[in-house]
Each structure stands twice: as structure tokens, then as C-alpha cells.
Design a protein that fits this description.
single chain, 375 residues, alpha+beta, seven-stranded mixed beta sheet, 12 helices, 7 strands, rod-shaped
């Protein structure tokens, strides 16, 4: 029977069984390499399971129970288990094996959490919001600009468990990058936590650069010659997407600050220096988002002002034409009253004279309005 049976057995045992009982159950069955997703006995949620010793990947370390038992017995190295959107059943055995707090387990499975950092005895639980920029040919009132996901990280003295939600933010390239830097990876699970935080914040920087290009395009359109005819829905859409980005970035400042300044057992002081660098980058992103918000408010106000000016111009044009049309209306109205004694009523040149007078007054009014910019 595979390791899936082992973990199902562990789950059914409740809290009675411990690591030794899990190990005894595992020894009776053939081992399966968790690093092969297609053959993962824990289900499709398992992405990878690797043991590291002195910053070097241990070959054939994909069996979870055996890897944990070996690391804890030798007190050397750590296990990095990567999951993608696990279910309660898939995560139950892992939570039992690593003695994870039920509240943290619930957050990791359910997702939709704010960025935070919590300590449960000797285990850290961190939540990061991942973001990615959604490419689009043209920004519209319904364009999706920012897509978010989540990465939950459990960090102990000898393990790292990453739980990813969403279709982006893969940690595969990050794992390969870390494996090429043995000295950094040898610093333990806290180094992995720093790498994940740094990776997430770097994505924030890339997304803000792309969002800035969209905001610049909206600004150019608003201040163009026909800016008043710009779709205001684009501005509101950018503000909504910016709010989504803000919800991912701003709450993360406090957890990263704690990792950089407060003494934490599983985070060595030498790793805290790296977190200070991440905090600097995060503050830069936070300031950019604040400036984007202010800029969009200014663009919206400028757009509304342009709409008001355009409406005033239309009203002036309508008023000017109404004044011009009032002249022939008034004269024709007077001569339509059918009084017997009216000036030039029986003169044969009276009708042409009235037309000339009407035309002259209308032309004079039109010229005056054009000179004053009303037409």
C-alpha cells in the first residue's frame, strides 16, 4: 500500500499516534517518491517534497515520513514540502505529522486570508498575497489588471511547508534558484521564508511598474484633445484594481517588520538583516500605490472638470444660436400679428427689406459670438 494509506491511517488515529507510530506504519510498505507529481500518494496537491542538508538537496528524499524521521533523528537539515490547494483530507495527515496548530491548518486550507504572521509555539505561520499583472491589449471598463493568489508558509526548526492557492506564483523557479545558492540555503528554513517573501515583494514591484504604464495611458487619454469623451469606467476600474493590489501589499508591512526587527526563535539574526531589505522594497511598493491612488484621484477630478468645461461650452453654443434665432423669430412674430397699420406693410420693397435687416442682425450676432469664442 502507498504512503496515502499511511497518512489516511494517521488521520484516523487522531492525536493518539505520534511520529514514531507513523514511522512504524510507513516501514511496512514500499516507499513512494513524493517529488514525482504524477505518482504523488498524497494526491495532486503535492508539488514537491525535498530534504536539504548543509544547503544541498538530498537525493531520493521524496518520502515524507522517512525524511522527517531522518532529519529529526540526525538533527541535521530540514524538509521542504510544497502543496497546491490541498483539501482537508489531504492536509490532515501532514498536520498530524508536523503537529501544526488547527487554526493555522484551517487558514491554510480555506485560503482568502489577509497577509499576516502568527506564532504557534515553535512554528511560524505566514500568509503572503501573491499578485500578477494580467496582460490586455486595451484597458477597458471591465479589464482585469491585477490577479491575486496566496502562499501560506509553515516554518519550524526542521521543516518548511508551503501551501499555494491560485494559478500563478509558482515556487519552482525559486526553489531552483535557492538550490544554486548552497550557502544561503544552509541557513535553514528561515532562509526559505526570506526567499519567498523576497520573491513575493519582487512580484509587487513588477506589477506596480506595469500598472503605472496603464495609469500613464489613462492620464494621456484624459488630457488629450477629446479627453472629456474618455470612458470614465476605465478610471474607476483602475481604482478597483489598485485597491486589490493595496489589500495585498499594505497589510504585509507589519509581518515583514516583525520578521526584520523582533526576536523570533526560528529566524536567526543574520536572516533578519535580509528581511530588512525586503521591508525596504515593500515600503517602496506601498509608497507607489499611495502615489497611484492620489494620481488617479487627480485624473478623475481633471476628467470631471473637463466634462464640466465641455458642458459649459455646449451651453454657450446653444445660447448663442438661440440668440441668433430669436431675431428672425421676433421680427416674423411682429409681422404675423395682422395689424392694418404697420410700417412698410404695403410697400413692394418691404419684404426684401425685412429679410435684409434680419440677415444683417444675425450676421452681426454670429460674428460677435465667434469673436468671443462662443461659436
Amino acid at each position: 500500500m502507498s504512503m496515502a494509506g499511511n497518512l489516511r491511517k494517521v488521520t484516523s488515529l487522531g492525536r493518539v499516534g505520534g511520529l514514531r507510530k507513523v514511522a512504524r506504519l510507513a516501514r511496512r510498505r514500499p516507499r513512494v517518491d513524493l517529488s514525482h507529481p504524477a505518482r504523488s500518494p498524497l494526491g495532486s496537491s503535492v508539488v514537491n517534497c525535498v530534504t536539504y542538508r548543509d544547503g544541498v538537496r538530498v537525493p531520493g528524499s521524496g518520502d515524507l515520513v522517512d525524511a522527517v524521521e531522518r532529519v529529526r533523528k540526525n538533527r541535521d537539515g530540514f524538509v521542504w514540502l510544497g502543496l497546491h490547494e490541498p483539501t482537508d483530507q489531504e492536509f490532515a495527515g501532514i498536520a498530524e505529522l508536523f503537529d501544526l496548530h488547527p487554526l493555522a491548518v484551517e487558514d491554510a486550507v480555506e485560503a482568502h486570508q489577509r497577509p499576516k504572521l502568527e506564532r504557534y509555539d515553535d512554528t511560524l505561520f505566514a500568509v503572503f498575497k501573491t499578485v500578477c499583472y494580467v496582460e490586455h491589449e486595451q484597458l477597458t471598463a471591465t479589464s482585469e489588471v491585477v490577479n491575486t493568489g496566496e502562499i501560506m508558509v509553515f516554518v519550524g526548526e526542521d521543516f518548511v511547508i508551503t501551501v499555494r492557492h491560485g494559478m500563478h506564483g509558482s515556487l519552482g523557479p525559486l526553489r531552483e534558484e535557492l538550490e544554486s545558492d548552497h550557502r544561503q540555503l544552509a541557513k535553514g528554513p528561515a532562509a526559505v521564508l526570506h526567499a519567498i517573501a523576497d520573491h513575493v515583494v519582487d512580484d509587487y514591484l513588477n506589477v506596480t511598474d506595469a500598472v503605472q504604464a496603464d495609469i500613464d495611458q489613462v492620464e494621456s487619454d484624459v488630457f488629450a484633445e477629446n479627453g472629456a469623451r474618455t470612458d470614465p469606467g476605465r478610471i474607476y476600474q483602475m481604482k478597483r484594481e489598485l485597491l486589490e493590489l493595496k489589500r495585498a501589499v499594505v497589510p504585509l508591512a507589519r509581518p515583514v517588520e516583525d520578521l526584520a526587527t523582533r526576536p523570533i526563535r526560528v529566524v536567526a539574526p543574520e536572516i533578519q538583516a535580509y528581511f530588512r531589505d525586503v521591508l525596504d522594497h515593500l515600503m517602496r511598493v506601498k509608497e507607489q500605490i499611495a502615489s497611484f491612488d492620489e494620481l488617479l484621484n487627480s485624473i478623475l477630478q481633471a476628467y470631471l472638470a473637463q466634462v464640466t468645461v465641455a458642458q459649459n461650452e455646449d451651453m454657450r453654443k446653444m445660447t448663442a444660436w438661440a440668440a441668433i434665432i430669436a431675431v428672425p423669430t421676433m421680427i416674423c412674430g411682429l409681422y404675423g400679428m395682422n395689424f392694418q397699420y404697420m410700417p412698410e406693410l404695403h410697400w413692394k420693397f418691404g419684404y426684401p427689406l425685412v429679410l435684409v435687416v434680419i440677415s444683417a442682425i444675425c450676421l452681426a450676432l454670429h460674428r460677435g459670438f465667434r469673436r468671443n469664442g462662443w461659436l
